[in-house]
Amino acid sequence: MEKRKLGKTGLNVSVLGFGGAEIGFGGANVQLVQELLSKALDAGLNVIDTAECYEVSEERIGEAVSDRRKDFYLFSKCGHSHGYEDPDWNDIGRLETSLDRSLKRLKTDHLDLFQLHSCSLDILKKGDVIEFMKRAKASGKTRFIGYSGENEAAQFAITSGAFDTLQLSVSIAEQACIDSVIPAAVKAGMGVIAKRPLANVAWKQHNRPEGYTANYWERLQKLAYDFLMREDAVDTALRFTLSVPGISVALTGTMQPGRYEENARIAANGPLDPSLYKAIRQRWSSVAEPSWTGEI
């Protein structure tokens, strides 16, 4: 599988990484996670991304593939150990405990990347959480630190100079970041990680779904890309994200054995045809509304 440098970290990452949210929120058992990750690692994946708030995700990853720790880069995130309604940002002690708990769950003595998980611009400006992240890096509990978020907060994270990477949403339904945020991150030497590269395949839903996927579904109804009617729509959507300049790795999650291998075959087809990529960008530019900013 193709490898790309993750910015100034120098990590040589696979263009596809495994996103751990789905196995966590889906309550996957260790046998399924072991099958999913073992096959993915065998197919060339070397990035596994999770978070302490993804329910059982960290535990399952630790149980399933900690014996193959040298085969992959391990990323996790902090900020919502007590749930999204009670974030940890105002209690550095909770963040410190969360990091130690993540290491224990993942059965490792260090992370390759530790990320702030979608904290607000105001929290970033206070500086306490950034100093915590710097201390985590200095302690050796993580090799690098990153910010996972969107919009103005992402811009601040870039200009702060504190972070090695930026993770944000990039897809056919999420392009606001392509013209400004991503180029700024690249200029700052940051590695860029794309989450939700398939926009949760929202176009396959006949009716409006729940959660943030609903916004993607509504956007795609208006964008009305011709290719979404074709059988190779997933191929086009994934390769679009991988073709965005500056993207080092795109995270895809699944609970379906064989799905990662399918995505790997798609990625192996290389960049999207330039004319199709340009058409998708032009369609976004002509249809996108001002409110279509990054989905946290």
Topology, pairings included?
Blueprint: E1 3-5, E2 12-14, E3 16-19, H1 21-25, H2 30-42, E4 47-49, H3 57-65, E5 73-78, H4 92-106, E6 111-117, H5 121-126, H6 128-139, E7 142-148, H7 151-160, E8 165-169, H8 181-187, E9 191-195, H9 213-223, H10 233-243, E10 247-252, H11 259-267, H12 274-287
Parallel strand pairs: 3-4, 3-10, 4-5, 5-6, 6-7, 7-8, 8-9, 9-10
Antiparallel strand pairs: 1-2
Task: Note the beta-strand portion.
Answer: 15-25%
- Which strands sit side by side, in order, in the main sheet? 3-4-5-6-7-8-9-10
Examine the secondary-structure arrangement and name the CATH architecture. Answer: Alpha-Beta Barrel
Per CATH, the class reads Alpha Beta
Question: CATH superfamily membership, which one?
Answer: NADP-dependent oxidoreductase domain
Mean pLDDT: 95
Number of helices: 12
Structural class: alpha/beta
* Helix-strand topology string: EEEHHEHEHEHHEHEHEHHEHH
Low-confidence stretches: none
Quickly count the domains.
1
Counting DSSP E segments of at least 2 residues, the number of strands comes to 10
Main beta sheet: strand number and arrangement? 8 strands, parallel, barrel
CATH fold category name: TIM Barrel
Radius of gyration: 18 Å
Distance between the termini: 29 Å
- Percentage of residues in helical conformation: 40-55%
Q: Globular, elongated, flat, extended or rod-shaped: what is the shape?
A: globular
